[in-house]
Amino acid sequence: MTRLYNDPVNFVDEATAGFVAAHAQRVCQVPGGVIRSTRSEPGTVAVVIGGGSGHYPAFAGLVGQGLAHGAVMGNLFASPSAQQVYNVCKAANNGGGVLLSFGNYAGDVLHFGQARERLIREGIPCEIVAVIDDISSADREELHKRRGIAGDLTVFKVAAAAAEAGYSLEEVVRLSRAANLRTRSMGVAFDGCTLPGADDALFHVPAGKMAVGLGIHGEPGISEQDVPSADALAELLVSHLLEEVPDGIETVRGARASVLLNGLGAIKYEELFVVYRRVHALLLEAGIEIVEPEVGELVTSLDMAGASLTLFWLDDELERLWRAPADTPAYRKGSLNPAPPIDTAALDIPDADEIPAASQASRAAARCVEQALRATREVIDANVDKLGKLDAIAGDGDHGIGMQRGAVAAAEAAEQALARGAGAGTLLRQAAEAWSDRAGGTSGAIWGVMLNALSLTLGDDAAPQAEHYARGVAKAKQDVMEFGKAKLGDKTLVDALVPFSDALSQRVAAGDDLANAWGAATQAAQAAAEDTQTLKPKLGRARPLAEKSLGTPDPGAISLAMILDVVHRVIATAD
Amino acid sequence: MTRLYNDPVNFVDEATAGFVAAHAQRVCQVPGGVIRSTRSEPGTVAVVIGGGSGHYPAFAGLVGQGLAHGAVMGNLFASPSAQQVYNVCKAANNGGGVLLSFGNYAGDVLHFGQARERLIREGIPCEIVAVIDDISSADREELHKRRGIAGDLTVFKVAAAAAEAGYSLEEVVRLSRAANLRTRSMGVAFDGCTLPGADDALFHVPAGKMAVGLGIHGEPGISEQDVPSADALAELLVSHLLEEVPDGIETVRGARASVLLNGLGAIKYEELFVVYRRVHALLLEAGIEIVEPEVGELVTSLDMAGASLTLFWLDDELERLWRAPADTPAYRKGSLNPAPPIDTAALDIPDADEIPAASQASRAAARCVEQALRATREVIDANVDKLGKLDAIAGDGDHGIGMQRGAVAAAEAAEQALARGAGAGTLLRQAAEAWSDRAGGTSGAIWGVMLNALSLTLGDDAAPQAEHYARGVAKAKQDVMEFGKAKLGDKTLVDALVPFSDALSQRVAAGDDLANAWGAATQAAQAAAEDTQTLKPKLGRARPLAEKSLGTPDPGAISLAMILDVVHRVIATAD
To answer: What range(s) does the DhaL domain occupy (chains A, B) (predicted)?
Structure first.
């Protein structure tokens, strides 16, 4: 939904004012819309685009060198008036005639048509290319009834690059018509947007459903189905578009096309890239050469949840115009002098998988460590929800699944290292890397640091004694405090780790065996972990929202105590 | 929410693969993240950035000439591991040392710190600048505890531009620390994002509320309040940031700053521009010179509904580095040779407001026309909801408010034109322009065309007779059919307009007076309007969703019949 506005009646005017203020280097405002604020070559064709507002970067975001000369900006999702079109054309005119281009909607056809007549009456040559890329909006036999969606961009780009190159109006029209006939899009929608001040969305798609072919203003689509996987959506869109190869493309194999995967507002970049991955593979499989694709937000409908895929089938002339540089508020290409590509084969990428030779004694200790990591994995598996809920009170709730990812990866790495004859030090190092690599987050880092510290004191040669463990834990404590910049009393895992390490060192120095010393130290850690219940907000600044965490212990300290306890049992029962 | 994914476990890997496929000209994948696919100058500093995924264009979208040399990509919202950081650094290293930069989060601090130690051990000089722009995340006295949000970009940009210019690691560190200390941001949130496969959002903000200072992963903010107007939000953000002017800025008046207004995912461009309009004005009022601002999505959190404002306080050196060109998948500046600015004073912008002289008789007729337009406004006002509901069945539901905007504007323009002595022709022309200008959309266009046609036949000289009206209506019919490309039987307004025009012409030709002829023709139009009930889907293609419109008359035909009826009453009671 649209949340930020003043009086909804002024939304478009105010958005335009802000847009022009932010992009004064490239655009300036005229009655009815915007034009370039930079000079164009006299005698060249002016490309004027436009339509309703709410589709940024269409249309105003595409005004600038190498792209449109002007954009007419109607009210939200409403065609601009003929007067607006006329005004923008008069201001954008460079003396070489005007090409008007816009999505093929009835209101736009009417208003741009009226403005064209008036310009012609006044002696300004003017032609129209209404974009018709949306294959869901009418049958192939009725191309002229199809609507324009994200394929607007390819037509505008070709027209403008031709104009920039000094082509005549006739040539600009010929090329943009060719681009129009070679551009095909298909869209899907998951939910509609809500206009500023409106009570409800413009339309809804039932939860869990996807509307196929729904227009960017909610115009009826062709079917409704369950929301598919990203790959299945890619397959749906590509298969439909490959059934719609335009006239003039003899074989798909060997054809060149640009590809636009467009998000309509709330379908975000990472999702689009997941879909694009499969689209790209499918097009390559079909033998298509992909030229300068675009993945992002090219034509939106406020925050509508939807996406569309466009194929723009190229020939030499269209490819050159598509590749030509452009510099607008929202679309830039061809900047800088491109540097040459690197040789990826020569990259320095380290191999972390080596197993050095180890003593018999260290390999025996490695078995015990592997058991401890297996027990760790089990206790975390059993407590993943509990830890998640604890973390959700003050944090982002991912402590449980983060610990689980790490513990699973560490146990698996340990098992493999053991099978390959690793000593205790190498086994712990590989487990440490696996943990921090897979878990991510703060807890992953801390556990990587701790296991690494232990790895260095155990090594692969000596038969580890109780004091090796005590020294390893002490190093872990020190490293965690240093890397994490956490002090005792900060209500973190450090509050449990410090008493554990101190007790372990004391008892080992006093002559206890590892099992007894570890057991006593674990009790100290458990008590300290419970004591991390925050009694005041954690951060320095007074912030009411942090108060909800009062009375909750630190999940990192709790999971540490949990793990120390199961490791104690492994040590106590070891041969 | 995140809708498009396959197995959520693979989301980041698949997004990365799609990203790299789409942007192979600029980036290539290495274990742990991406690096530039273009060669950098040997011996220069490599700037490696990174953090959790889910924040595109941060971080991978910022890799390319003039910006980062590599980006380390952790799991969703989770720090990458030290191994990942190390791998990317090894691959990105140009022999001039490595600058690591990232948002100041505990996990990132840990992992980048570990990787730095390893690089230094291996003889690769490496330094760290953790970005701390979020003023809500800790007090000014504890800058080192602050988190990094959209201000990441300014620090990365300065570091990278310095590296590109061949500065030493020491100089790159000095400048990026300076940028870090001169960058201040503040964010707000309206709702959280939902991770792929998760049941619920990472966090929620109560409906109608705004969380101030909430972190981009949902970290606690400083307060909660009702959602403000766009202007009030601008005032809130600017006032807080102006209380946080960094050391080294002596007076705000005369200072230079860049401004970043960042959307976190679901707050879209038009909203951001509305807010920016006020931000820009407030900063100018404070005497700040604004340098190359950015309004858009720079650091997102999937589709989180939130926004942040960043001020980057410049000095000469930082300004030069901020303005330097860059060419990455998501951030490009400094392309092309900029063309000179235009002279806006010389633009050809027409004046539509002229009132030509008119005969007494035409001015009398104008009074009648003005009454008819007033009656039109009243009947539309009374039926705005009814028309909206009718249109919502098959269209976008805006017919009611569109007609209202148009009728109100036309009646107001007519009243003004009458007061200024306009004849019937001029009054109708100005009403036509006002209608289509304010209403927008298809209906606005059609009513503009119809009133314009009538304007041309009535003119400002003759005393209009019944046949002038009949001829004007016939021209309106012809123009609407021509511009709209609609035929009789298409179930549009044309289906009512044609019988109206035909009956009016016949009755006038047969000698009826205007009132009688108009009344009889209105009856024909009313019957025909009801008859526009669609019996089969309107569009050529079989589409199940269009079936819901069966049995509903066309709202444009219905509103036409409504208006003809009230105009008949005006004519019948005219002097």
So the answer is: 367-569
Clarify whether residues A253 and A393 are in a common domain. Answer: no
- For B207-226, give one letter per residue: b (16+ CB within 10 A) or e: eeebbbbbbbbbbbbbebee
Q: How many domains does chain B have?
A: 2
Out of A69, A217, A468, A568, the active site residue is A217
Q: Do B78 and A332 touch (CB under 8 A)?
A: no
Q: Which of A272, A345, A333, A350 is nearest to B28 (CA)?
A: A345
CB B215 within 8 A of CB B147: yes
- Examine residue B340 and state whether it is found in any structural domain, yes or no: no
Bond from prior residue into A59 cis (ω within 30 degrees of 0) = yes
**pLDDT for the residue B547:** 54
CB B102 within 8 A of CB B50: yes
Give the span between the Cα atoms of B556 and B263, in whole angstroms: 38
Residues B377 and B280 in one domain: no
The alpha-carbon gap from A574 to the nearest alpha carbon of chain B, in Å, equals: 32
Do A375 and A293 share a structural domain?
no
DSSP code for A268: -
Residue B168 scores a pLDDT above 80: yes
Testing the interface with B: which of A270, A298, A301, A347 to mutate, by most B Cβ within 10 A? Answer: A270
Chain Cα centroid distance, residue A477: 36
C-beta separation of B428 from B367 below 8 A: no
Residue among B55, B217, B399, B468 flagged as catalytic? B217
Residue B347 lies in a domain: no
| Gap between the Cα atoms of A4 and A17, Å rounded | 15
**DSSP of B282-308:** HHHHTTPEE-S-EEE-SS-BTBBEEEE
Q: Is the pLDDT of residue A441 over 80?
A: no
DSSP 3-state assignment of B477? helix
Q: Give the CATH number, domain containing residue B118.
A: 3.40.50.10440
Tell me: the pLDDT tens digits for B269-309?
999 999 999 999 999 999 999 999 999 999 999 999 999 99
H-run or E-run covering B509: helix B494-509
Measure CB to CB from residue B6 to each of A229, A342, A402 and give the nearest one.
A229
Q: Is A351 part of any domain?
A: no
Residue A392 shares a structural domain with residue A246: no
Give the residue among A569, A442, A465 at the shortest CA–CA distance from A514. A465
Mutation site, B56, B110, B536, interface A, largest A CB count within 10 A: B110
Residue B127 lies in a domain: yes
Structural domain span for residue A396: 360-573
Task: Tell me which DSSP letter residue B228 carries.
Answer: P
Phi, psi of A28 (to 5 degrees): -140, 155
My answer on whether omega of the bond before A57 falls inside 30° of 0, hence cis, is: yes
What CATH number is attached to the domain comprising A511? 1.25.40.340
- Distance (Å) from the C-alpha of residue B479 to the closest C-alpha of chain A? 10
3-state helix, strand, coil in chain A (%, to 5): 50, 15, 35
Domain match, A116 and A73 both: yes
Among residues B289, B314, B333, the one where a domain terminates is: B333
Determine the distance in angstroms separating the CA of A375 from the nearest CA of chain B, rounded to an integer: 23
pLDDT at B340 over 80: no
Look at A319 and A456; give whichever has higher pLDDT: A319
Q: Do A141 and B90 touch (CB under 8 A)?
A: no
Q: Is there a single domain that holds both residue A193 and residue A247?
A: yes
| CB B554, CB B529: distance < 8 Å | yes
Q: What is the DSSP string of B58-98?
A: TTGGGBSBTSBSEEEEEEETSPPPHHHHHHHHHHH--SS-E
Its ipTM equals 0.78
Q: Which residues of A touch B223 (CB under 8 A)?
A: 543-545
DSSP one-letter code for A395: S
State whether A118 and A257 are in the same domain. Answer: yes
Choosing from B333, B368, B393, the residue where a domain stops is B333
